[in-house]
Amino acid sequence: MVSWKQQTNNLQESWAKFFQLSWQERWILLQAFEFLPLIAAGLHCMNFQRLSSILVRFSPMSGEVCSDAAMQQAAATTTAHLVQVAVSRTPFKVTCLVRSTALWFLLRRQGIGSEIRIGVSQQEGTFKAHAWVESNGIVLNDRNDIHNQYAAFEQIILPDGTERI
Predict the structure, then answer these.
(1) What is the value of pTM for the model shown?
(2) With 153 labelled, which of 1, 16, 48, 59 sits at a CA distance of 20 to 30 A?
(3) Distance (Å) of CA 7 to CA 14, 16, 56
(4) Is residue 120 part of a domain?
């Protein structure tokens, strides 16, 4: 059992790490904490296609997309890390689809193109599905070799009117 003193030290350490982040990183982290439960509730109440079409309306791709691929990749990697930090500190179980949808949504809000990839596998007679996010063909929120474990669907189901970016 964790003592009260250890809990206090952990909390102080977490706040110290939070204040070491830039303002932009703090904002992304706070948005991740906000959107994870909302997306989880949305997926509980409706199908993925309906939820993603709603999210698209709240995150129109602006004309302010950064053209520098290296800067986009750095921002996408940072955002993926911050979403994972939020997931690790969320008091409920976060599925890979919730985590990936939140990351995709936050990247979209930043003008960074990405795709939610869904793959399937059959291991020991059990059918399994998994979701992750890719940007420019690079896996952001999972292992780089996830394609070896799950066969990804070629076509991503996108909401009506959404363009692949």
Answers:
(1) 0.83
(2) 59
(3) 10, 14, 39
(4) yes
Domain count, the chain: 1
Structural domain boundaries enclosing 142:
7-66+73-152
The answer to whether 37 touches 92, Cβ cutoff 8 Å, is yes
Tell me whether residue 49 is in a domain: yes
Rounded Cα distance, 28 and 86, in Å: 10
Query: Angle at CA 90, nearest 5°, toward 81 and 139?
Result: 30
Beta-strand relationship, 126-135 and 115-123: antiparallel
3-class SS string, 91-157? CCCCCHHHHHHHHHHHHHHCCCCCEEEEEEEEECCEEEEEEEEEECCEECCCCCCHHHHCEECCCCC
pLDDT digits (tens, 9 = 90+) for 78-133: 999 999 999 999 999 999 999 999 999 999 998 888 899 999 988 788 899 999 99
